[in-house]
Amino acid sequence: MSITLSRITVTAYRVPIASPVATSFGVMHNRPAVFVRLEDSDGAFGWGEIFANWPAAGAEHRARLVVEDMADLLLGQTFDSATDLFAQLTDKTHIRALQCGEWGPFRQVIAGLDTAMTDLEARRAGLPVAQFLNAEAAHTVHCYASGIAIAQADSQIAQSRAAGFSAFKVKVGFDLTRDTDLLRTLFTTLGAGETLCADANQAWALPEAERFVATCADLPLGWLEEPLPADAPLTHWSALADQCPVPLAGGENITGTGSFADTIATGVFGVLQPDIAKWGGFSGCWPVSQAIRTSGQRYCPHFLGGGIGLIASAHLLAAAGGDGLLEVDVNPNPLRDAFDPWAGASDRGTLTLATTPGLGITDLPDEIAGFASFSGEVHL
């Protein structure tokens, strides 16, 4: 059934935080998010989220891209499906992105719009998104605690454990000697059945990554994430994989079906982590998730943002099946928690998907309204 879009609403948000969130490449001093709503000529609607963590001014920039650079490609246009929208927008924004060299922002906006269109389609079909993608989709997904600062890992892991998590991921890549010493101590605190992963956020060149791997060779990490830049030569990734006794993980900074196909084919990664808000939305990430699983690699979607993107990632993981884990940033974020993804449950180690159509989101929570930094709406 064709879909003619008649209204687009987008809002950027920023929430002050008491404790900055540090990665090896920079520090987040607030929590941003961009939520977008599409409505068709029949009044059906859908919600999506656009990646907005970086750069610091990224949220407002991407929200303005929707209103000022994309609306002419959407309003009054008829699409056969979200996949059709994704393909058309990718094609029609190519020169615009080339002109300004902003491939990332355009891809991220298209990803959020695709998520909103998929939500709209699933609502029209009367199905949750997971079942819309796959009738045999699971109704629950397992989660792991992410965003844990290595220097505060003792307390953050204890808090995460109390919240029901049994798998944890700490951020490394700050000081190699200190990081490895702290990791070694953390392993002595883990309980039976608990898993610890490490994320370097692209911190190292090959020699530093090799040093880390050699120092931690006896530690049973669940995986080592982005020890090298995403665009490091394949020879460097292969060399590190040959030396690393635990799976390498990556994918949040890979874009394009072809790039994922090439990455999967190398066999370098044991865990692949596409981010639905950074590239692809459902139209791109759903086939990629299937290809990852078919290859025998593990699919664990990356996500670090607000509530809509987290819920969308959960639906995608549930549809894909397998032994994947949903990433849940455990740092305070009202733009995530206001959506109550766990429906009041205290155990966050498992997320049960709503059975309502689409992503189960009708309106944005009232309590986030005061954090809006930009709002825009265009309609026929």
Automatic annotation (TrEMBL):
Keywords (A to Z) from UniProt: Lyase
Mandelate racemase/muconate lactonizing enzyme C-terminal domain boundaries: 150-247
Alphabetical list of InterPro entries matching this protein: DgoD-like, Enolase-like_C_sf, Enolase-like_N, Enolase_C-like, Mandelate_racemase_C, Mandelate_racemase_N_dom
Any GO MF annotation of the entry: lyase activity
UniProt keyword Lyase, yes or no: yes
SUPFAM superfamilies: Enolase C-terminal domain-like, Enolase N-terminal domain-like
Pfam families: MR_MLE_C, MR_MLE_N
Annotated PANTHER family: D-GALACTONATE DEHYDRATASE, D-GALACTONATE DEHYDRATASE-RELATED
Name of this chain's protein: Mandelate racemase
